[in-house]
C-alpha cells in the first residue's frame, strides 16, 4: 500500500511541475523552455548540477527527518520534501526533453523519466530496489550522454552549439 501512496504523490508532483513549466512558458522564462535542444556537454553539465542538488537536498531532508520527534515537525519536513521535488522536477523535465529533442525524439519519455527519478528519491523502503533503480538511472543517463545528437536542424530546432568553437584569427 505504501508504494501506491508514493506513486500517487509522485503523479501529483509531476502534474504540479507541468503547471510550473506552463507558467514559465507563459511568462517567457527561458530556463523552463521545453523547446529546443541540448548537446551532450550541456546535458552532462545539467545532469551533474541537478543530481548534486537532488543528493544534497536528500541528505539535508534525511538529517531533518532523523531529528523529528513530534508529528507537526514530521509533516513540516514532508512538505519541505514535496516543495523541493516540485521545484527540481521542472528542471529535470527541461533537461531530458531537450536532450531527447537533440536525438530527434519526442519529449514525453523525458517527462516520464523525470517523474520516475523523483519517484525513486521518494521511495526509500527497500534497499535492493534502490540499488536497481540507481543502476537503471546510471545506464539511461550514460546512454543519453553518449549518443550524439543530429548535427543538422530537426523539427525541434537547430543543433545546440555550446560552447562555440573558437574561430582562428589569422594576422598578416
Report on the architecture of this protein.
The protein is mainly α and 172 residues long. It has one domain (2-28, 37-146). It has five helices and no strands. The model has no long low-confidence stretch (mean pLDDT 86). InterPro entries: DUF805. This is DUF805 domain-containing protein. Keywords: Membrane, Transmembrane, Transmembrane helix. The chain crosses the membrane at residues 6-23, 43-61, 73-96, 103-124, 130-147.
Question: Can I get a quick summary?
Answer:
The chain crosses the membrane at residues 6-23, 43-61, 73-96, 103-124, 130-147. This protein is mainly alpha-helical. Helix content is 69%, strand content 0%.
Features:
mainly alpha, 0% strand, membrane, 172 residues, 69% helix, DUF805 domain-containing protein
Q: What number of structural domains do the residues give?
A: 1
Main sheet? none
The N- to C-terminal Cα distance equals 76 Å
Amount of helix:
55-70%
Shape: globular
Q: In what range is the share of β-strand residues?
A: under 5%
| Total number of helices | 5
Mean pLDDT: 86
* Estimated structural class: mainly alpha
| Unreliable segments of 5+ consecutive residues | none
Specify Rg, calculated over alpha carbons.
Answer: 19 Å
Order of helices and strands: HHHHH
The total count of strands amounts to: 0
Keywords: Membrane, Transmembrane, Transmembrane helix
Transmembrane segments: 6-23, 43-61, 73-96, 103-124, 130-147
InterPro entries: DUF805
Organism: Veillonella magna
